[in-house]
Amino acid sequence: MKPLSPTDQIFLWLEKRQQPMHVGGLQIFSFPEDAPGDYVARLAEQLRTDTEVTTPFDQRLDTRLAQPVWVHDKHLDLEHHFRFEALPTPGRIRELLAFISAEHSHLMDRERPLWEFHLIEGLGERQFGVYIKVHHSLMDGISAMRMTQRMLSTDPARRNMPPIWDLSVRPGHKGDSSGSSLWQSIGRLLGESGKQLGTVPVVARELLRTINTARKDPAYNSVFHAPRSILNQKITGSRRFAAQSYCLKRIKAVCQAYGTTVNDVVTAMCASALRTYLMNLDALPEKPLIAMVPVSLRKYARTAGDKADDNQGEGNQVGVILANLYTDESHAGTRLRKIHQGIQEAKDRYAHMTPEEIVNYTALTLAPAAFNFLTGLAPKWQTFNVVISNVPGPKETCYWNGARLEGIYPVSIAMDRMALNMTLTSYNDQVAFGLIGCRRTLPSLQRMLDYLEEGLLELEQDALS
Amino acid sequence: MKPLSPTDQIFLWLEKRQQPMHVGGLQIFSFPEDAPGDYVARLAEQLRTDTEVTTPFDQRLDTRLAQPVWVHDKHLDLEHHFRFEALPTPGRIRELLAFISAEHSHLMDRERPLWEFHLIEGLGERQFGVYIKVHHSLMDGISAMRMTQRMLSTDPARRNMPPIWDLSVRPGHKGDSSGSSLWQSIGRLLGESGKQLGTVPVVARELLRTINTARKDPAYNSVFHAPRSILNQKITGSRRFAAQSYCLKRIKAVCQAYGTTVNDVVTAMCASALRTYLMNLDALPEKPLIAMVPVSLRKYARTAGDKADDNQGEGNQVGVILANLYTDESHAGTRLRKIHQGIQEAKDRYAHMTPEEIVNYTALTLAPAAFNFLTGLAPKWQTFNVVISNVPGPKETCYWNGARLEGIYPVSIAMDRMALNMTLTSYNDQVAFGLIGCRRTLPSLQRMLDYLEEGLLELEQDALS
C-alpha cells in the first residue's frame, strides 16, 4: 500500500469523460526477417502466457482513510490489460491512426491497474503496432517512454524479451511520476510537496491567490500575454491522433543554415503548422500564439542540486519556457529566427535564476491553466495556448524479440481550454510528431501533418534563397 | 429541439464510468454467394458515403433552461459513428465476443448523437459482424431491435439497402423509448409522467416513501423475498459479453414433454446455468434466486386500453413478473415445473388486475432496485437478483444487401447491484442468449454458455426418463 503523491491525485481529480488523463505511446515494428505470416498471432499467444506482472503494473487504486492509495491487485486479469487487436482492410497508417484515435478516447477502468497493452496486427505487409496506454496518475509521459525503451534492445538477435508488464523493476527506480511532472511545480508552489493536497476548492483558492499576487508584480507581468484562440475552448470526449516522422538530417541542415538548435526548428515547424491550420479555419489570432515548452532543468539547476527530485541521476526536474510562436509573422525564416531568440532569452533568464526562483516561475506559468482545469472556468488570463513537448527517445535502432522498431510516437493528453498537445520524440535519424486533439474543437487535425512538412520545406527554401 | 422524457433522463442520471447506460445488438452475417474476398471493405467504403443521417440518429444532447433536450447536430461527423474494424487472428466467435466485451465497456461521447455502428471484418471464412450501440436515453432495447429489423429484408435479392442511420422514419413512429420502458412505470408511480422528474434526491425520497408504504401492506409483502448474492454487488467498469444460440426445436420438444411455454423453458435454462455457475463459485444462496422478467401486458390490459402507451398498435406496455428460479431445487425437471407454475400464477394475478393496479405493482417491484441505483446505497430490500429479458426478433431468415443474417444477439446493461443481465431473442429456428456482466464481479462469465447447454440437456434427459 502506497499513498498517491499530491500531483498524482491531481490527475484523478481532473479526469472526466471528456477529459481522460492517460498518456500513450505508439510503436511500429517490422517482422523479423525469418518470421512466418502469422507472426503477430503467435506473439500474442506467447504474451498471453506471461502472467508475471511487476510493480507498478500490478497496482490498482483504492482508498484508505479517504485518501487514494495504490494497492496490489489480487485479482489481476491479464486479458483486460493485454489486448490483441487488428486493423481493418487495407491496414495502412491511416487505419492505425483511426484505431489509436478511438482507443485513446476511452476512459480506463479505475477498479484495475491503470494500463493497457494493445498488440495490433494487420498493418501493411509485414508490420505490427504496439500501443501502450498508462494513466498519468501511475506514470507520466517521460517515465512511460523510458519504460518502453527498457522493453527494447539494440541487439536484433535477442529473443525471449518480456513485455512491459513483466520488466523487472530497476533497483531504486521509483516507477512513478513523482518529481518528474510539471504538476509537481504546482504542488510545490502551494507548499504542500509530500503532503496530501486536500480538496479541489482549497487548491483552486490557493492558485487564484498566487495568480493575483503575481499579476501585481511587474517581474511576472510578461507571462499573461497569450491571445484567445479556438485551441483554448472546452473539449469533447473524442480524440483525433495524427502522427508522422520527419528526417532529422533535413532538420539539422536547417539548424546549420540558421544557427539554431533542433528544438528551435521543430518549434518553428509547429508554429508554421498552427499558423496554416488556423488561417484555413479563419481563426488565427492577431497576437502571436504562445507555446508552453517543458525543458529539463538539469543544466540550469545542477550546481544547486535538488536531491529529492533528482531521480536516480536522470535529472528529470522540469521547468517551462513560454515560447512566442510568432504566428503573426508570415516569413518562415524570420519566424524561426524570432522563435530562436525568444527561447534563447528564456534559457538565459533561467541561467540567472536560483532553483527556487525557477520552481516559482514555472509554477506561476502553469497556475492559470491549472486553475482553469480544476475549476472548469473559462480562462481570464491565458499564459499559453498550446503545449509543445519533447520527450527523449532511443538514439539507436531498437528491436523487440528481433522485430525492428520503425517508429515511436507519443500520444499525450488534450484538456479543456488546451485542445491540442504536440509531443515530439526523436528516434534514430527521425523526429516523430504525435498530435492529439479534441476531434470536435479542432476539425481535420490530421491536416497539420502536411502543414508541418510544408513548414520544414519553407525553411529549407528560405535557407537556400 | 425536443425535451427528454422523464424516463430518458433517468438513464443520464444513472450513467457513470463503471455503469454505462447503452444497449447494443450484435448481428452475424454471411457474405452473399458471389461476393469477392474484400466484400466487407467494399461495404465499408459504400457505407462511408451514406452521409444522410435521419432522426433520431442526428440528435445530440443539449441543455435548455437547465433541462436536457435533443437538438439536431449541425457538425455530425459520420467517421465518429460509423466504425470499420477487424478481428485479430484467428477470427473466431471467441475473438468477436472479446471485441464486443471491450467495446461495450466504453462510455459514449455525450457531445454527439448517442449511437455507434461497428462493421467488423475478419470473422471466420466469409462472415462479418455488425455491432450497433445506442444510449438507452435515445432508444431502449426493444426499439433498437425493431430499428435493426427495419434495416433487414427477407428478400436475398434486394440491394442498395441503407444502413440504420439512413432509414426513413416511419410516419407516426416515435423512435424513442417513451412508453416502452420499464422505467416508465417508475415515472408513473411518482405521478410525474410527462413532466420533468426533478432531481435525484427528490425521486429517491419518493421511491423510499413508496417502498415503506408497500412493506406495511400484506398484499405487497411477497415481493421482498430475493436473497443476497454476488450478482447483487457493486460493479466495475469492464464487461464480459457471452452469446450463443440454441435450437428452438429442442426447446419446443422440452415444452411439449412438460406442458410448458418456450419462455418457461428458457427461464429454466437460465435458472440451471445460474445454479451451476454460483455453485462452482461456492456462492449459491440457500434461498432461491428471483428473476425480474419483463412481460408484454397487451393481452392483460388490452380491454381496458391505455392509448397513451399503445405505441402504434404494437402494444409495448411492459409489466414485470418476479419469477422464482428455484435454484435450491436440484432436479431439473422439477425445477422447470415449479418455475412454470410460479410464472403461471403471476400471469393469472395480472389477469385479475386493473391496468392501474398493474402499473402500481410493476413500479413497486422495481422501486427498491431504482432506489439503490439512484442513491448508490446497498439494497436493504431486494425484490429480484437478475434480469431475464426476452426481446422479440425476426421470425424469418433475413438479409442485408444479400448478406444472410446468421444470428442476432442482444447486448444489454449491467448495473450496480445487478451485475448480470440475460437477454434472449428469437430468430428463425433459434433462441439467442446474450449475457452481459461485470467482468470483475462475475469471473469467467462465458462458462454460463456451457451451463445453459447443460441445463437444456438435463431437461431433455429428464423428459426421456
Automatic annotation (TrEMBL), chains A, B:
Residues 315-459 form the O-acyltransferase WSD1 C-terminal domain. Belongs to the long-chain O-acyltransferase family. This is diacylglycerol O-acyltransferase. The lineage of its organism: Bacteria, Pseudomonadati, Pseudomonadota, Gammaproteobacteria, Pseudomonadales. Pathway: Glycerolipid metabolism; triacylglycerol biosynthesis; Lipid metabolism. The keyword Lipid biosynthesis applies. The keyword Cell membrane does not apply. Residues 4-266 form the O-acyltransferase WSD1-like N-terminal domain. Signal peptide: none annotated. PANTHER family: O-ACYLTRANSFERASE (WSD1-LIKE) FAMILY PROTEIN, WAX ESTER SYNTHASE_DIACYLGLYCEROL ACYLTRANSFERASE 4-RELATED.
